[in-house]
Amino acid sequence: MTAARPHTESSVTSPGSSAGPLRVVQWSGGIGSWAAAQRVAAAHGTRRMVLLFANVLVEHPDLYRFSRQAADQLGVPVTRVCDGRTPWQLFGEVRFLGNSRIAPCSHLLKQVPCRTWLEHVTAPDAAILYVGIGVFEEHRTTSIERGWAPWRVEFPMCHEPYLSHDDMLDWARDLGMRPPLLYEPPYSLQHNNCGGFCVRTGIRQWSRMLELDPAGYSQAELHEQRLRAELGDVAILRDRSGGGSRPLPLTELPRDWSGRLNTTHDGVWAVVYVRHILGGDRRRGHGAGGGLHGSGGLGGLPSRPSQREAGGLRGVVGDSALGDGRRVARPS
Fold first, then answer.
1. CA 86 to mean position of chain CA atoms
2. What is the C-alpha separation between 60 and 114, in angstroms, rounded?
């Protein structure tokens, strides 16, 4: 199957040199890209803003509802691009099953269509890209910048005031928005990708989706089984219990897997990082001048805990202590 040329549901003309840069928000339908768009709009207005959304055709219906509501709130239409394949179709064509370490769908179904749109509409010196990752993912900025070169990329949510996942959800609610369903109980997911069945997530999220959406989980099982029949002993997940590592097919995932999770470096880092945040000033409100979303900051927030700090918690604080949405990060 030949991928269809990415198409858009709305178009933006190429900017003239005197019009200022086109401000292209990588619009995912998640709370991070929404918050990034809010900061871009506050700093630069919306006249030159584009909400660029790569549709992979397997999102939860409520993601599209939130995307429309958020676009209406900003007064900017969503510009959609689409390769035409689902992740499962792509995995079969490239003969590789995506997983938490390598996911060809992110590159081929999102980055490539978006880059194609950029190349048709604007030039690297006439546009700025904005990505909504936050301070907990700041380590990703270098690779993202490298991947989008020669376009300039900025990360509004990696600047003060730093916001947790729950802070951004509260901000949206304060503006009358209804957050995406997958962020709310009983799902309480950290990411709003692929209807909750994103191959880049881990055992905890798949276990939760097995419990909450067994029909959707069964569909994912069937897709994985078909790919395993073609590709061999591969799987989205891996079982690393007992010191080993083996492919863990979705058909073998037990319902009580959450009790067998091990501590991870990222989990330890997140807890240490949160302790730095909450050990200092408490955040006070939502307005400008020291609140959650205005000017001012938390002060004293480190870029990353030292190995000594992280090592001091390893084996004491497990990954399960974070919660799926890392709600521990929310200040009281």
1. 18
2. 21
Q: Spell out the long-range contacts of 85-94 with Cβ–Cβ below 8 A and sequence spacing 24 or more.
A: 85/1, 85/3, 85/57, 85/109, 86/56, 86/57, 86/58, 87/56, 87/58, 87/194, 87/199, 88/58, 88/223, 88/227, 89/1, 91/223, 91/227, 92/226, 92/227, 92/230, 93/1
Residue that the structure tokens 């881990």 belong to = 202
Contact in structure between 81 and 114 (CB atoms under 8 Å): yes
* Position 213, amino acid: D
Q: What is the pLDDT of residues 257-301, one digit of tens each?
A: 554 544 343 333 333 333 333 333 333 233 333 333 433 332 333
pLDDT digit string (tens) for 11-55? 444 444 457 999 999 999 999 999 999 999 999 999 999 999 999
Give the position of tokens 């991947």. Answer: 147
Mean pLDDT of 90-111: 96
For tokens 């061999």, what's the residue? 232
Over residues 115-136, the pLDDT tens digits come to: 999 999 999 999 999 999 999 8
Alpha-carbon distance 30 to 44, whole Å?
21
d(CA 298, CA 57): 39
DSSP string of 50-68?
A: EEEEE--S---HHHHHHHH
| Cα dihedral 132, 133, 135, 136 sign | positive
Phi-psi region of 241 (alpha: psi -120 to 50; beta: other; left: phi over 0): beta
Q: Which amino acid is at 279?
A: G
Cα(284)–Cα(282) distance, integer angstroms: 6
Query: Residue 297 in 3-state DSSP?
Result: coil
Amino acid code (one letter) for 112: V
Q: What is the pTM of this model?
A: 0.75
